[in-house]
Amino acid sequence: MIRRTALLTLPPLALAACSLEPAYERPSPAVSSAFPVVPGGDQPPLPASGARPVGYREIFRDPRLIAILDRAIANNQNLQVALANVRDARGQLRVARAEFLPAIDASAGASIARNRGAAQGLGANGGSVSEQYNAQVGLSAFEIDLFGRIRSQSNAALAEYLGTVAGVRAARLTLVGETASAYYTLATDRSLLAVAEETVKSAERTVALTRARVSGGIAARTDLRQAETVLRQAEADRADLTALVQQDRNALQLLVGAPVTDAELPAAIESAEPLIADVPANLDSRVLLARPDVVQAEYTLRAANARIGAARAAFFPTISLTGLVGFASNALSSLFTGDRLIWNGGADLGVPIFQGGALTGNLESVRARRDAATAQYRQTIQTAFREVADALARRAVIADQFAAQQGLVEAAADTLRLSEARYREGIDPFLNTLDAQRTLYSARRALAQARLVRANNLVELYRSLGGGELVPEAVEGPPEAPRAGEALKTSD
User: Where do the segments described as Disordered lie (predicted)?
Assistant: First the structure.
């Protein structure tokens, strides 16, 4: 008897389900095979080291920034949400895979009843007490996956899980980029604050000198007022930048998820920006296939493709098994003795005949979702291509722009020295000196901003390239399904 019941669990293990899923084919990226090259741009060739992942520690060489990035990855709440989504998807995957195996439950029960005669006090012989005990193990409505419905649902759950793993990498990459940009913005505002403070001191000396010349009758009062305009502007900028530096610190602490100490803050953009390593520029656009958001979009497409198989399988018959084996007795002491064994088994066949178009509508719906996921996948690649192309376009001319800005600062500083000397000698009016002061002040501010543009450009290149493999050989073929423990440790 027990052997017959055990045989009920064999068909699910012995029968191989066919699959009604469409064969998955990666959509064409719909972008050029190479990124655009700006004529005359500064674009170094690929290194000879070959394919390898590039982490943020290789790009950002500033120990202070590395410490901040490590803390941000450990504490950032958005990243914690992404990790929670991974755990949620992992749980859903286990639920989906559990349908491959029968759910076996055990139960036990007891009932004791006294008849009406005994309840009315008719004496010991006027009524009776009945007892019933049972213990049983069984399975209920276990579906044999003949047409791959459960397998397709499991495949969809697996793709969704792997998509959330890629989502963690995307969230981590975004966090690294935003934190690095906030760090360099803070460094730039600190540099601008230093420029404003130096300009205030310089303008104060000029105002004092001009006031003395006005008192001596050498200069006009208009010269004093003109000198004061530079001083007041620098003072206003100093006050504004003092607030901006604190706001930058608050923004950085929000990304880090914890207070940032003074020792971790950058002193100035001049010392922080040179510590960024260069990123190769002459890349094949297939490198974008390894970008986390592109990988996530492809897994979403794979899940939508798998659901088509489940929707197709719903048109076919289903076979469900039910089985039970146990013991029953009128006395607890004899429950597991003698001929107390009971068992039963059965199979149900379900065939959809008329569903009012629900099955066809569901298939049409999942196909539409697959088409939408295909379009979203292509759009994600196109967006990634544009981001890289924009960053490369800026990078191609940024060296010339920075060199020109440095030359402007040098020329403005020399012009101010000459103008001050000629004003003291009475050769030129003070207006020339005033213009030279304003030009130098503006040029120094622009140079600090140019350093920030160059830093953010490298950050954007690192982020838009995916923070991972940087050469075509690293992304040949479809993305592999990583194990969860390895995927979460992948370098950005």
Answer: 473-492
CATH number of the domain residue 174 falls in: 1.20.1600.10
Which structural domain, as residue segments, surrounds residue 403? 31-100+145-316+360-487
Check: CB of residue 269 under 8 Å from CB of residue 448: yes
Of 256-265, 339-348, 399-408, the range with the lowest mean pLDDT is 339-348
Alpha-carbon gap, residue 374 to 104, rounded angstroms: 40
Residues 51 and 136 in one domain: no
Residue 283 has pLDDT above 90, yes or no: no
Nearest to 384 by CA among 37, 24, 30, 25: 30
330 lies in the same domain as 448: no
pLDDT at 362: 84
For the chain, the residue count is 492
CA 285 distance to own-chain centroid: 21
135 and 196 inside one domain: no
pLDDT of 117 reads 56
Nearest to 420 by CA among 408, 435, 406: 435
- Structure tokens of 200? 């205030």
Does 347 lie in the same domain as 232? no
Task: Supply the mean pLDDT for the chain.
Answer: 79
- Residues facing 311 on adjacent strands: none
Can you give the CATH number for the domain in which 123 is found?
2.20.200
One-letter amino acid at 489 equals: K
Residue 25 in domain: no
Query: For residue 321, what are its two tokens?
Result: 């098994």
Q: Each residue of 11-66: pLDDT tens digit?
A: 444 444 577 888 888 888 777 666 666 555 444 443 333 344 567 888 899 999 99
Structural contact between residues 416 and 437, judged by C-beta atoms closer than 8 angstroms: yes
Report the domain count for the chain: 2
Q: List strand residue ranges (DSSP E) for 379-478, in order.
A: none
Rounded to the nearest angstrom, the gap between the alpha carbon of residue 387 and the centroid of all alpha carbons in its chain is 16
- Judge contact between 139 and 46, C-beta under 8 A: no
For residue 107, give the nearest of 143, 149, 135, 144 by alpha carbon: 135
Residue 492 lies in a domain: no
- pTM for the model stands at 0.77
